[in-house]
Design goal:
two-stranded antiparallel sheet; elongated; alpha+beta; 2 strands
């Protein structure tokens, strides 16, 4: 997972996690994005892996298999 920090003027910083392979962003619709550790824990609970920084699809190879099937 790649974690980026964004700042909105007059607001708290918020964090975004994205897959290191495909760039897909982890989405959660609560205030978890304002706390780095909480957001990372939510991503892990949703099936994201910390090592080697992958979303559930890339971690299992599913997206790579689908891409290979479509390009063949």
């Amino acid at each position: 997972m790649t974690m980026r920090t964004y700042h909105i003027t007059g607001d708290l910083p918020y964090y975004v996690i994205s897959c290191g392979a495909c760039g897909d962003a982890f989405s959660c619709y609560d205030d978890s994005c304002y706390q780095r550790d909480t957001l990372a824990n939510r991503a892990v609970l949703a099936g994201w892996s910390v090592e080697p920084h992958r979303c559930p699809g890339c971690g299992t190879g599913t997206q790579r298999q689908l891409a290979a099937a479509y390009s063949a």
